[in-house]
Amino acid sequence: MNAAGVRMVVTRARSRGTGASLQGGGEKAAPLRSGEAAAEGRKSYGPVKRQRKARRLSVAYEASEGEKGEGPERLQAPSWEPQDWRLQLDNIRTMRSGKDAPVDLLGAEHCFDPSASPKVRRYQVLLSLMLSSQTKDQVTAGAMQRLRARGLTVDSILQTDDSTLGALIYPVGFWRKVSRRLSSCGVGGGGLPGQASLASKVKYIKQTSEILQQRYGGDIPASVAELVALPGVGPKMAHLAMAVAWGTVSGIAVDTHVHRIANRLRWTKKATRSPEDTRRALEEWLPRELWREINGLLVGFGQQTCLPVHPRCQACLNRALCPAARGL
Ligand code: SF4
Questions:
Q1: Smaller CB count within 10 Å for the chain: N or C?
Q2: Per-residue model confidence (pLDDT) at position 79
Q3: Where is the HhH-GPD domain (predicted)?
C-alpha cells in the first residue's frame, strides 16, 4: 500500500475491533425491504444552511465484495482520492478523542441488553436503528429503555397493541416535521403532533417483527440485501446492523452527518445529492479498513463541531484544510 492511497480490498467481510459482534456461538445466521434514506440534497459544497426535507429513495442494492466473500485479496488503486484527506481524518480523530458525543454514549452499540441472548441482542440492535431514523440519539435511547423494561423480543413486540407501542416509542419519529407540515396545510386537527408518522413507525416495526418471526426464527438476516428488504430499514441501518449485530463490514453507513461532512470536506469527487450517492462515492476510494470507523467518527464530529447549521469552524482543526470553511 503506498502513501498515495493504494487500498487493499478485502474480499471477505470480517469483524473489526471497534464493533461488537453479537453472533452467538453455534447460532446459525438466518438471513432478509424497502429503501428509506434521509436525503439532504444540495447544489454546492458550502455549509448546509438548513435541514432538508427527508425523501424516500428507491435503493437498488448491489452486494458488496465483502458479502460476496469470494476470490483472493487484491490491491486496487483508487482512480481518485481527495486532497489532504488523511490529514483531515487525523484532525477529526484528534477532535473526537474524548469520545463524548451522543453517538458514543447512546448509539446502537449501547442500546441493547448485554445479558440477552445473541439473537435477541441482534433484534434489539435492529430495532434501535429503526427507531433512530430522523431521531436524536437521546430520544432513541429513552424509547429503547422503556421497551427493554418490558422485555424486548420479537414476540413481546408482536403481543403489544399498536397504541401501547406508539406510546412507548413516542416521540421517536418525524413528528416535529410532520406536525409542522400538517399544521402549515391546515391539516391535523386535535391529534397528537405527528400522529401519522408515529403510526408509520409502529407499522414498520410490527411488519418487520412479523417477517423476522416467520422467516428468520426471531433473528435478523445476515445480509444487506435481506435487511433492506424489511419494512422501514434503509441502507444506513442495514450496514450498521451488519457491523454491530453481525460484526461484518458490508459498506459505509452514511447518514445526514456523514453525507454533509463528506461534501464539506470534498471527500466526494463531485457534490452528491443523497446519503446513498455519498456512500457509493466514498466506497470508491476510502480504504476498506476505515469503513467501520468512519460512521461513528463523522457522526460524532457532526453532532459536536461540524453542525448542520452554524458549524463551529473557529474551533475546528480542519479549518485551514476545509473548502467549506473558506466561505464562512
Ligand atoms: S472547518 Fe471544520 S467545522 Fe467548519 S465546515 Fe469544515 S470540517 Fe466542518
A1: N
A2: 87
A3: 131-304
